[in-house]
Amino acid sequence: MKILHIETSSKNCSVAISDGEEMLCLCEEISENYKQSESLHNFVEWALEGAEISLKDLDAVSLGMGPGSYTGLRIGASSAKGFCYGLKIPLIAVNSLETMIEPFLNQDFDYIIPMVDARRMEVYTAVFDGKSGEMISETEAKVLDEDSFKEYEGKKLVFVGDGAKKAKEILQISGVEFNENIYPSAKYLIKKSLEKFNRKEFEDVAYFEPFYLKDFHGVKKKKSED
Prior knowledge:
The protein is of the alpha/beta class. The protein has 2 domains: 2-96 and 184-198, Nucleotidyltransferase, domain 5 (2-Layer Sandwich); 97-179, Nucleotidyltransferase, domain 5 (2-Layer Sandwich). Helices cover 24% and strands 28% of the residues. The strands form 2 sheets. A 5-stranded mixed β-sheet has the order 3-2-1-4-5, with helices on both faces. Strands 8-7-6-9-10 form a 5-stranded mixed β-sheet. The longest helix is centred in the middle third of the chain and has 18 residues, at 70-87.
């Protein structure tokens, strides 16, 4: 069961190849400049070479569907859909926040709260049970303030992801941990993607859209003065 995994929702451009639960190769790079458009296809090529397989050996493509960078998600989705169309193989999509909790499961946390940096004091986030991994609160774009997550006061929490840096500066909750160095990664897609493959939970390649969560806001050009 060979699957190509693509994750481009954050500053981490990440590609992995797996065979069943085994990761055969991982290529990724964290960049402040969001290098997905420059790096993604090279990473796919290098990952295939590292795994010693070719595109025709793939059984499916797995994608971190967001939320996250609008441009990064669009690039990743376009590539994933292109591979699926050309190879006539299924597309699997996994919530990028859901994959970020994997390193922290069953480590004595009551709740794991992944955060992906958005605009200003906003983050993309959700709350997960620290043991089962079950999603407790739905994915949302949340503007942080001093009262955010106060309902979890007294519980053992860990905030993970680049958005946790904002949380660390503003949240007024005691006894919590922060890990700012976790990004959505293709290696965290493997387990969820295999489960979805076995249940045949595939996306409609023609109509699939990433989980943008909110509309894209570009920078408007100023009108030139007469």
